[in-house]
């Protein structure tokens, strides 16, 4: 049996197994949430109404069912691009039209992204304008959606094509250790994005204004001072123009760090609750969760580039995924290797997804504990309950689904540790 056939069988088996596991998890979630829809859990009976509990259940079930359809479509597209020869056909058409070289490779990446985006567009529109609209979360107009889409596409081309061209050039010019140089370029690019995102990119999509509530500002500033955290500014973002969901986050890197509150968050929480939510975010920094995640990203991406450096030289890698590699030195396979690697890795890495999810939940517990030590545990509990209710997050998720997917612990587990 040839290596390419073995790889084809392994890829197909991993894809089918992953689909079966996803389907099993989603149906477990739907059944579990539906089974507990009729009554608010006893721990929340005094704070959450039955109507709010049932809305969260219905929203969770609707998202899970939509996810099943989206999952099936995604699997069909993946098969179409790989084993059914879609990427091979696209590559050969562009070779005939453009010949080999950098232009053809960039065109392949761009065409793949454009076609993939168009094929997934109906699901994006349905989720925004039907599913989110149905539950009262969507605030985006068609005009705003179109403007955001055009901006994202243009920004993606302006940022993505240059870094893609650099990596493709390194693949062809930096020798057998090209993957190490490409990894360094990719990490530098990501750090640069973290630095410029708050000041130059985020304002293209949202409006940011300084926090002008003097009482809240003084409270937040005092909290940050006693926690030893410095930020460039406190800002309010017009999240309500797109969604009713609420949030707060830190963004930026180094001196460009800033605190951002959604306007929806400030409308829903009082000053003490906002302070508690911010203390939770500060807990992530205090426990160096951000640094740890960056280090993990550095290590995983290094391993990924090293693996790509090896498989990109293996004919079975291309043939096993339905692509005939280019045999002419004038028409390198670098863009093909990048795309195939991008398509194949999620199929195999899906099975280790519970590990980072578990680590993320551990970090959330640590951040909660820090917030309770710095502010009022009652305020944090009240804030979390309001956010769970306003975001229609179910209070009764399936335990197995939680272990596999949830990056944040369920409300019952978080609140139990605060009492």
TrEMBL record:
<keyword id="KW-0378">Hydrolase</keyword>
<keyword id="KW-0645">Protease</keyword>
<feature type="transmembrane region" description="Helical">
    <location>
        <begin position="6"/>
        <end position="25"/>
    </location>
</feature>
<feature type="active site">
    <location>
        <position position="281"/>
    </location>
</feature>
<feature type="transmembrane region" description="Helical">
    <location>
        <begin position="336"/>
        <end position="355"/>
    </location>
</feature>
<feature type="transmembrane region" description="Helical">
    <location>
        <begin position="178"/>
        <end position="200"/>
    </location>
</feature>
<dbReference type="GO" id="GO:0004222">
    <property type="term" value="F:metalloendopeptidase activity"/>
</dbReference>
<feature type="domain" description="Peptidase M48">
    <location>
        <begin position="211"/>
        <end position="417"/>
    </location>
</feature>
<dbReference type="InterPro" id="IPR001915">
    <property type="entry name" value="Peptidase_M48"/>
</dbReference>
<keyword id="KW-0472">Membrane</keyword>
<dbReference type="GO" id="GO:0071586">
    <property type="term" value="P:CAAX-box protein processing"/>
</dbReference>
<feature type="transmembrane region" description="Helical">
    <location>
        <begin position="68"/>
        <end position="87"/>
    </location>
</feature>
<keyword id="KW-0862">Zinc</keyword>
<feature type="binding site">
    <location>
        <position position="284"/>
    </location>
    <ligand>
        <name>Zn(2+)</name>
    </ligand>
</feature>
<keyword id="KW-0482">Metalloprotease</keyword>
<feature type="active site" description="Proton donor">
    <location>
        <position position="368"/>
    </location>
</feature>
<feature type="transmembrane region" description="Helical">
    <location>
        <begin position="107"/>
        <end position="129"/>
    </location>
</feature>
<dbReference type="InterPro" id="IPR032456">
    <property type="entry name" value="Peptidase_M48_N"/>
</dbReference>
<feature type="domain" description="CAAX prenyl protease 1 N-terminal">
    <location>
        <begin position="29"/>
        <end position="207"/>
    </location>
</feature>
<dbReference type="InterPro" id="IPR027057">
    <property type="entry name" value="CAXX_Prtase_1"/>
</dbReference>
<keyword id="KW-0479">Metal-binding</keyword>
<protein>
    <submittedName>
        <fullName>M48 family peptidase</fullName>
    </submittedName>
</protein>
<dbReference type="Pfam" id="PF01435">
    <property type="entry name" value="Peptidase_M48"/>
</dbReference>
<dbReference type="GO" id="GO:0046872">
    <property type="term" value="F:metal ion binding"/>
</dbReference>
<keyword id="KW-1133">Transmembrane helix</keyword>
<dbReference type="Pfam" id="PF16491">
    <property type="entry name" value="Peptidase_M48_N"/>
</dbReference>
<feature type="transmembrane region" description="Helical">
    <location>
        <begin position="294"/>
        <end position="316"/>
    </location>
</feature>
<feature type="binding site">
    <location>
        <position position="364"/>
    </location>
    <ligand>
        <name>Zn(2+)</name>
    </ligand>
</feature>
<keyword id="KW-0812">Transmembrane</keyword>
<comment type="similarity">
    <text>Belongs to the peptidase M48 family.</text>
</comment>
<feature type="transmembrane region" description="Helical">
    <location>
        <begin position="150"/>
        <end position="172"/>
    </location>
</feature>
<keyword id="KW-0256">Endoplasmic reticulum</keyword>
<feature type="binding site">
    <location>
        <position position="280"/>
    </location>
    <ligand>
        <name>Zn(2+)</name>
    </ligand>
</feature>
């Amino acid at each position: 049996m040839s290596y390419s056939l073995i790889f084809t069988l392994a890829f197909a088996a991993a894809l089918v197994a992953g689909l079966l596991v996803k389907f099993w998890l989603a149906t477990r979630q739907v059944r579990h949430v539906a089974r507990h829809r009729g009554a608010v859990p006893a721990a929340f009976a005094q704070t959450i109404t039955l109507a709010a509990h049932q809305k969260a259940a219905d929203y969770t079930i609707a998202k899970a069912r939509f996810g099943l359809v989206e999952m099936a479509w995604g699997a069909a597209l993946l098969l179409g691009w790989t084993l059914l020869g879609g990427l091979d056909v696209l590559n050969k058409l562009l070779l005939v039209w453009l010949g080999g070289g950098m232009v053809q490779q960039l065109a392949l990446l761009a065409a793949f992204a454009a076609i993939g985006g168009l094929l997934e567009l109906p699901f994006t529109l349905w989720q925004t304008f039907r599913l989110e609209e149905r539950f009262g979360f969507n605030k985006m107009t068609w005009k705003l959606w179109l403007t955001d889409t055009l901006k994202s596409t243009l920004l993606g081309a302006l940022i993505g094509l240059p870094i893609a061209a650099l990596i493709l050039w390194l693949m062809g010019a930096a020798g057998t250790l090209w993957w190490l140089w490409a990894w360094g370029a990719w990490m530098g690019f990501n750090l640069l994005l973290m630095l410029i995102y708050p000041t130059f990119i985020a304002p293209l999509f949202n409006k940011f204004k300084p926090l002008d509530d003097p009482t809240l500002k003084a409270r937040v500033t005092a909290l940050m001072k006693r926690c030893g955290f410095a930020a460039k500014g406190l800002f309010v973002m017009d999240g309500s123009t797109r969604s009713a969901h609420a949030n707060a986050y830190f963004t930026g890197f180094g001196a460009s760090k800033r605190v951002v509150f959604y306007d929806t968050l400030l409308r829903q929480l009082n000053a003490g609750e906002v302070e508690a939510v911010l203390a939770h975010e500060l807990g992530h920094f205090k426990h160096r969760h951000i640094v740890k995640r960056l280090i993990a990203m550095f290590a995983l991406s290094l391993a990924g580039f090293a693996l790509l450096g090896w498989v990109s030289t293996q004919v079975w890698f291309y043939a096993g995924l339905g692509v005939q590699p280019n045999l002419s030195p004038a028409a390198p396979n670098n863009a093909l290797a990048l795309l195939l690697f991008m398509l194949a890795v999620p199929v195999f890495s899906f099975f280790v997804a519970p590990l980072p999810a578990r680590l993320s939940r551990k970090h959330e517990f640590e951040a909660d504990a820090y917030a309770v030590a710095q502010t009022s545990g009652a305020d944090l509990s009240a804030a979390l309950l309001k956010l769970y209710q306003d975001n229609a997050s179910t209070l009764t998720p399936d335990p197995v689904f939680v272990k596999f997917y949830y990056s944040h612990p369920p409300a019952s587990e978080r609140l139990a540790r605060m009492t």
